[in-house]
C-alpha cells in the first residue's frame, strides 16, 4: 500500500467533528481579536474550515475563490461547528426539511480493518518484507478483505439514481419512504430526483438536495457539492455500473461507502439485488460491511502553453479509465508514453487506455487487457488497435506516474475521455499525466470482495463457460 492510500484510509477513521470543535473554538477567539482590530475573521475562518473538512490534495486547494458562499452562513457555522454548517441548499423548503438541515448533523464514524481468519482484525497490516539471515520473505500482504464497522449510527444517506428509468424511479420512492420511516435517516437526492418525488407526493418534502444547476465538481472544486462527503454517511446507487461511476465522480476527495443496487444490464460493480433492498440496507446500516476498496486514477491535462508542469487544469479522478484516442480523426494516433520520465513506447494505433483494476473488466478488457481483481493496486496500460504485432498490454505498479505526450509533429490532435465522458482535446505538445489517486472508492460487497468479483465475471461475461467434457471416451491408460 502506498503512502497516499494509507493517508486515505487514515482519514476514514478521523473524527472530523472533534477537530472541528477545536478549530471552531480557536477561530471564535480569533474572531473576537480580529474584530477588535478591524479585520474580518470570516474569510480565514472559512479557509480553515475548508482545509479540514475537504481534506483536499494540495493541487486542488484554491480556497480564496469561495467568495460569497459565506454570506449568511457564518452565524450558523459559529453556533453549530463544522458539521452543522449548511453546506447544501434546501431544495424542498418545507419547515421540516429546514429543521433537519439546521439540526446538528454529525457524520457517523467508522473503522476499517483488514479481515483475516485468526488475525487481530484491528491491526493495520502492510507488506512486511523481512531480510533475516539474508532470506527475503514477505510476512504480510495488504490485499485482504476489508471490513467496515460503524462506530456511531449512520444518519445521512445520499441516493443516486439512473435517469429516465421508471423502475428506478418507483424503487427510489419506496426506498426513501422505508429509510425515513424504518431507519429514521436523513435523505439527500439529486435536484432532478426531488422534483420527481415531489411530483408524486408532497409526503417527500423532508428529502433534501442541493442547488439545481450546481456547476460540475470538476470545474468548480470549491462549490457546495464538493463538500458533500462531509455530510453523507452512505451513498446508495440505483442503476448500472454507469451510476456507480457517476457516484464516484461526485466525490473529488474522500468517498463515503457506496452501496450499489443493480438495475442495469451489466453489473460488475453492482452486487446488490434491488428486490432485497430492505434486508441489504438493514444489514449494512448495522454493519460490519465487507468492502472493496476500488483504486482511482488522478489525471492532469498539461497544456503545451503551460510554463511548468504545475500550471495544469484541476485533476480529474477516474474509477474505470482514462482513454486517449484519435477521436473523430481518421489518422493514426501517435502518442509518446513515459513512465516516471523513462520512455516506455510510442503508441501508433487508435489510442491507449490507462485503466484502474476496477476498469479492467470494461473498455480495457474489450481492447485485450487482462481482468484484474479491483483491489489489486496498479495501472493497466492497454493499447487500442495498435498497428504493430508485438504490442501487448502491460500492468504497471501502483507507484508510477505515466505521461502520455502528443508529439509536436503529430498530424492530428488526440482526445482524452474520463470514464467514457468529458472529452478533452489534446493538441500537439499537450500531455496527460496520470497516477494513482489518494482517494479510493469503497463499495460494499454482497458476499466478499473475491466472491463478488468472481460472480461478476461469471454472470456478466459468462467467463470460461464451456460444457464439461463427458466421462465416456478415450482415457489415458
Ligand atoms: N468497447 C468498449 O467496451 C467500450 C467503449 C467505450 C466505453 N466503454 C466503457 O464504458 C464505461 C462507461 O460506462 P457507462 O455505463 O457510463 O457508459 P455506457 O452506458 O456506454 O455503458 C458501457 C458499458 O460498460 C459497462 N461497464 C462500465 N464499467 C464497467 C466495469 N468497471 N466493468 C465492466 N463493465 C463495465 C457498463 O455496465 C455498460 O454496459 C467507460 O468507462 C468504458 O470503460 C467500453
Ligand atoms: N445520477 C445520474 N445522473 C446523470 N447521469 C447518470 C446518472 N446515473 C447514471 N448516469 C448515466 O446514465 C448512463 C446509464 O447508466 P447505467 O450504466 O447505470 O445504466 P445501464 O446502462 O442500464 O446499466 P449498465 O451500465 O449495467 O448497462 C451512464 O452513461 C451513466 O453515466
| Relative helix content | 25-40%
CATH superfamily of the largest domain: Probable inorganic polyphosphate/atp-NAD kinase, domain 1
Could you name the CATH topology of the largest domain? Rossmann fold
Count of DSSP strands? 23
Major sheet summary line: 6 strands, antiparallel
Q: In what range is the share of β-strand residues? A: 15-25%
Given helix and strand content, the structural type is alpha+beta
* Rg, alpha carbons: 24 Å
The figure for the number of domains is 2
Strand order of the largest sheet: 12-11-22-19-14-15
Number of helices: 11
Global morphology: globular
The hetero compounds bound to this protein are:
nicotinamide-adenine-dinucleotide, adenosine-5'-triphosphate
Protein name: NAD(+) kinase
Family: Belongs to the NAD kinase family.
GO molecular function: ATP binding; NAD+ kinase activity
Catalytic activity: NAD(+) + ATP = ADP + NADP(+) + H(+)
Write the layout of secondary structure elements.
Elements: H1 3-13, H2 16-36, H3 41-54, H4 74-80, H5 95-102, E1 110-115, E2 128-130, E3 137-140, E4 145-150, E5 156-161, H6 166-183, E6 186-189, H7 191-200, E7 234-239, H8 241-249, E8 258-262, E9 272-273, H9 277-286, E10 289-294, E11 297-302, E12 316-318, E13 321-325, E14 333-339, E15 342-349, E16 351-355, H10 363-366, E17 379-384, E18 394-396, E19 402-405, E20 414-418, E21 421-426, E22 431-436, E23 441-444, H11 449-461
Parallel strand pairs: 5-6, 5-7, 7-8, 8-9
Antiparallel strand pairs: 1-4, 2-3, 4-10, 10-23, 11-12, 11-22, 13-16, 13-20, 14-15, 14-19, 16-17, 17-18, 19-22, 20-21
Helix pairs in contact: 2-3
Bound molecules: nicotinamide-adenine-dinucleotide and adenosine-5'-triphosphate.
Amino acid at each position: 500500500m502506498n503512502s497516499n492510500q494509507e493517508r486515505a484510509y487514515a482519514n476514514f477513521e478521523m473524527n472530523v467533528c472533534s477537530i472541528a470543535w477545536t478549530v471552531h473554538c480557536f477561530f471564535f477567539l480569533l474572531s473576537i481579536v480580529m474584530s477588535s482590530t478591524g479585520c474580518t475573521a470570516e474569510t480565514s475562518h472559512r479557509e480553515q474550515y475548508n482545509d479540514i473538512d475537504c481534506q483536499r490534495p494540495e493541487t486542488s486547494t484554491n480556497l480564496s475563490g469561495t467568495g460569497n458562499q459565506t454570506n449568511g452562513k457564518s452565524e450558523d457555522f459559529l453556533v453549530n461547528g463544522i458539521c452543522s454548517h449548511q453546506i447544501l441548499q434546501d431544495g424542498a423548503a418545507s419547515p421540516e426539511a429546514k429543521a433537519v438541515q439546521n439540526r446538528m448533523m454529525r457524520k457517523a464514524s467508522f473503522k476499517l480493518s483488514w479481515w483475516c481468519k485468526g488475525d487481530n482484525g484491528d491491526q493495520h497490516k502492510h507488506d512486511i518484507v523481512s531480510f533475516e539471515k539474508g532470506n527475503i520473505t514477505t510476512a504480510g500482504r495488504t490485499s485482504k478483505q476489508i471490513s467496515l464497522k460503524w462506530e456511531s449510527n449512520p444518519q445521512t444517506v445520499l441516493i443516486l439514481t439512473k435517469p429516465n428509468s421508471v423502475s428506478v424511479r418507483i424503487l427510489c420512492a419506496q426506498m426513501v419512504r422505508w429509510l425515513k420511516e424504518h431507519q429514521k435517516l436523513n435523505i439527500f437526492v439529486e435536484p432532478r430526483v426531488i422534483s420527481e418525488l415531489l411530483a408524486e407526493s408532497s409526503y417527500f418534502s423532508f428529502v433534501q438536495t442541493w442547488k439545481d444547476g450546481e456547476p460540475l465538481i470538476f470545474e468548480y472544486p470549491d462549490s457546495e457539492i464538493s463538500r458533500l462527503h462531509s455530510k453523507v454517511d452512505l451513498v446508495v446507487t440505483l442503476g448500472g455500473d454507469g451510476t456507480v461511476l457517476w457516484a464516484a465522480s461526485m466525490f473529488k476527495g474522500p468517498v463515503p461507502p457506496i452501496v450499489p443496487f443493480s438495475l442495469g444490464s451489466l453489473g460488475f460493480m453492482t452486487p446488490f439485488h434491488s428486490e432485497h433492498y430492505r434486508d441489504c440496507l438493514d444489514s449494512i446500516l448495522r454493519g460490519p460491511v465487507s468492502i472493496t476498496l476500488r483504486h482511482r486514477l488522478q489525471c492532469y491535462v498539461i497544456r503545451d502553453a503551460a510554463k511548468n508542469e504545475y500550471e495544469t487544469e484541476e485533476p480529474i479522478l477516474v474509477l474505470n479509465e482514462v482513454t486517449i484516442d484519435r477521436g473523430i480523426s481518421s489518422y493514426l494516433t501517435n502518442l509518446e508514453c513515459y513512465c516516471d520520465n523513462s520512455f516506455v513506447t510510442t503508441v501508433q494505433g487508435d489510442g491507449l487506455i490507462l485503466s484502474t483494476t476496477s476498469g479492467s473488466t470494461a473498455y480495457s478488457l474489450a481492447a485485450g487487457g487482462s481482468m484484474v481483481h479491483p483491489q489489486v493496486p496498479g495501472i493497466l496500460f492497454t493499447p487500442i488497435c495498435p498497428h504493430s504485432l508485438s504490442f501487448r498490454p502491460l500492468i504497471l505498479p501502483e507507484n508510477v506516474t505515466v505521461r502520455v505526450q502528443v508529439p509536436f509533429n503529430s498530424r492530428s490532435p488526440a482526445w482524452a475521455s474520463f470514464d467514457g465522458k468529458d472529452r478533452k482535446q489534446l493538441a500537439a505538445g499537450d500531455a496527460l499525466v496520470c497516477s494513482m489517486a489518494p482517494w479510493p472508492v469503497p463499495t460494499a460487497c454482497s458476499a466478499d470482495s473475491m466472491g463478488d468479483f468472481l460472480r461478476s465475471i461469471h454472470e456478466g461475461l459468462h467467463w470460461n463457460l464451456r460444457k464439461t467434457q463427458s466421462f465416456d471416451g478415450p482415457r489415458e491408460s
